[in-house]
Amino acid sequence: MSSARYERLPTSASDDDIHLADIDQDADAERAPYQFPVYPPDPRFHQPTPPAWVRAGLIIFVIFCLWLSYAIRGMHPPPNKEAWI
User: Would you say which domain of life the source belongs to (predicted)?
Assistant: First the structure.
């Protein structure tokens, strides 16, 4: 076990602490805030908007694929009833 005794920390600041806090605030006010460097924008993240006819073509293609999958679903051959006998 430790032989050090427990001591409560002061709950109010002493006059010396207040004076040191004023000095720290003055030093912070003199320092300029850090500014991040400015880089040119990356063109990979600024893609041009696709034309309207490409968007319409994509929507028509998706609708066609849905229709084709629905049409193909019903094209399976009828079951051979003679094979079950």
Answer: Eukaryota
